[in-house]
Amino acid sequence: MKAICNLAGGLLVAAAALGTGAPQSTTQDLRLSDIRAQQPKETIFASELCQRAREDSQGWVIKTHAIDPKTLVQDLNTLMERSDEVILAGMLDYAVVPSPSGERPATYTEVKIVRSWKGPHRAGDVLTYGVPFGSLPCEQPPPSSPTPRFDFVPADFGVTASPPYAYLLFLRQSKGNETQLVQGLRLAAGEGVQGIFMIQVPAPLPTDTERYCNGSRKWNVGHCNSYVETSQSPVLFPYAHDPLAKRYGGMSASDFLREVRSVATAEGLKEMSSSK
Q: What does each C-alpha distance from 52 to 39, 49, 63, 146, 151 come to in angstroms?
């Protein structure tokens, strides 16, 4: 379950654009701080999900969900077309809370953008996106041990490689009944599991926290961009049945970025990045 928490990935708010000359987004973005303010630990502990976890004999409820294959797209072009935002990013923070409907957990991840192919945000901006699943810790302040948990997990979703990662994300706004499962931006297809591609990156040393794409709020967009541009690390597909894995599974990160760039260019989109 630790890998699932680190994905959400987990799970995106405008900050100053770095070195692009692009204006900031004027849209109202979801903020991770707002999510936490809406649902502090006391509220989460009192939720129906946590009540069910506390009543379970093991103190840990695990529910799995089979993804409808009809909701998965078969090619990168279609995924790009369905997305409102297409970005390369590194994680800053995440939170797991009950969904708006209260029927399952939702995981929200805050990321910093390294490149943008589609959408109003640019390199250096910060976004929060959500996925309609996760591992919800039911901590009662002060925390007790062991902590009851309620997990809702798509079947065959997860990765075996260790973090940290950079994330190539295809996102769209939740709409209709989806807003009862997750607020704001979500992965573009597959009931919220398709649209995340993971690239393993080195963990920064404690004395060099500006490098790479994760592990600290100090990491540098330009360093992350330069690393991924030439990375031979294979692109990882968290969902085992993602149709795109048949074509792109095992492809190096640098080659996959070229594929994304090609698809974006064909759609008339311009890549925005920063070397700073």
A: 18, 5, 12, 15, 11
Buried-state track 231-259, b at ≥16 Cβ within 10 A, e below 16: bebbbbbbbebbbbbeebeebebbebbee
Select from 228, 276, 233 the least CA-distant residue to 252: 233
Query: How many angstroms separate the CA atoms of 51 and 228, rounded?
Result: 43
CA angle (81, 185, 150) in 5-degree steps: 125
pLDDT one-digit tens code per residue, 242-262: 999 999 998 999 999 999 999
CA dist list (Å): 77 to 29, 173, 267: 26, 18, 8
- Collapsing DSSP to helix, strand or coil, 81 comes out as helix
Query: Model confidence over 168-218: pLDDT tens digits?
Result: 999 999 999 999 999 999 999 999 999 999 999 988 888 888 888 987 788
Q: pLDDT tens digit string along 38-67?
A: 999 999 999 999 999 999 989 999 999 999
Please give the model's pTM, rounded to 2 decimal places. Answer: 0.87
What separation in angstroms does the CA of 11 have from each of 8, 56, 106, 134, 198?
A: 4, 28, 9, 10, 13
CB 106 within 8 A of CB 275: no
Pairing mode of beta strands 165-173, 185-187:
antiparallel
For residue 159, give both structure tokens: 């990765």
Q: Please state, in angstroms and rounded to a whole number, the distance separating the CA atoms of residues 256 and 137.
A: 35
Residue with tokens 């979801």: 30
Nearest alpha carbon to residue 199 among 255, 241, 155: 255
